[in-house]
């Protein structure tokens, strides 16, 4: 089958795009608001987009608290979402007012960061402290006001718990990162294979 997403709904019961771009890593973004309220939310339109400088980005469907806080305070933290924290990650996606502390909501502990004002999740085995770079409004080719915003930040601090290392190397099977698929599906990475470049 073929369809053009600009025409509206796909000719399938569920939008296939997210199921086809899978697995998507989950940016688990902690921020602090200008008023000092802690905020935490998952974003699966997320990735590391380059490594020199090291830049990550997440896309906000609507101008949500994470985007607003990152822009207002100049920073955010990406906490690695792992299988052991899947329920807390999901809890932090609840739609709540900006006055609600989402660390508390999800039963997690804020740990002060070293290079940015936003705290990280103490329970996460790895986290990137990021300095806000820019917000790119994402408009369609046929015009119309953009409703999505790509928030980019440079990594200025990396926390790694040594429990996920094997012989000094990050061991993905130990990390057990979770990722988003289509619908309500998730993946967990436990199996790894190697391939050398030609
Ligand atoms: C696994 C997962 C991935 C999500 N990915 C996105 C995303 O990429 N963009 C988005 O706008 N919302 C996404 N959401 C929904 C947000 O987490 C949710 O709207 C949240 O309340 C936003 O919080 P904030 O306003 O505190 O930033 C996702 C939710 C889950 C559970």
What does this structure look like?
This protein is mainly beta and 198 residues long. The protein is built from 5 helices and 14 strands. It has helices at 17-20, 65-73, 86-91, 102-106, 172-175, and strands at residues 24-25, 27-32, 38-43, 46-51, 54-61, 75-80, 110-111, 120-121, 126-140, 143-160, 165-166, 169-170, 178-180, 186-188. The strands form 4 sheets. The protein has a 7-stranded antiparallel beta sheet, with helices on one face. The mean pLDDT is 97. Residues 26, 39, 41-45, 59-61, 64-66, 90, 93, 95, 180 line the site of flavin mononucleotide (FMN).
In short:
The protein is mainly β. Helix content is 14%, strand content 41%.
Question: Which residues sit in consecutive blocks of at least 5 with pLDDT less than 50?
Answer: none
Work out the helicity level: 10-25%
Radius of gyration: 17 Å
Shape: globular
Q: How many β-strand runs? A: 14
- Hey, roughly how much beta strand do the residues contain? 35-45%
User: The biggest beta sheet, please?
Assistant: 7 strands, antiparallel
User: What molecules are bound to this protein?
Assistant: flavin mononucleotide
Query: How large is the count of helical segments?
Result: 5
Distance between the termini: 35 Å
**SSE pattern, N- to C-terminal:** HEEEEEHEHHEEEEEEHEE
Class of secondary structure makeup: mainly beta
């Amino acid at each position: 089958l073929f369809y053009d997403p600009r025409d509206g709904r796909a000719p399938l019961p569920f939008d296939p795009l997210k199921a086809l771009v899978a697995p998507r890593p989950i940016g688990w973004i902690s921020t602090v608001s200008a008023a000092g309220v802690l905020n935490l939310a998952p974003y699966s339109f997320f990735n590391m987009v380059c490594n020199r400088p090291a830049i990550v980005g997440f896309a906000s469907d609507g101008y949500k608290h994470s985007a607003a806080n990152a822009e207002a305070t100049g920073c955010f933290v990406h906490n690695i979402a792992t299988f052991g924290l899947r329920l807390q990650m999901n809890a932090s996606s609840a739609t709540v007012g900006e006055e609600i502390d989402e660390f508390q909501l999800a039963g997690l502990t804020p740990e002060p960061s070293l290079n940015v004002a936003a705290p990280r999740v103490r329970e996460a085995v790895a986290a990137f402290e990021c300095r806000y770079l820019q917000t790119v409004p994402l408009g369609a080719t046929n015009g119309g006001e953009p409703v999505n915003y790509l928030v980019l930040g440079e990594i200025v601090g990396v926390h790694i718990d040594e429990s996920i290392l094997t012989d000094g190397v990050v061991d993905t099977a130990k990390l057990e990162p979770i990722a988003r698929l289509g619908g309500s599906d998730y993946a967990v990475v436990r199996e790894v294979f190697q391939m050398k470049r030609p």
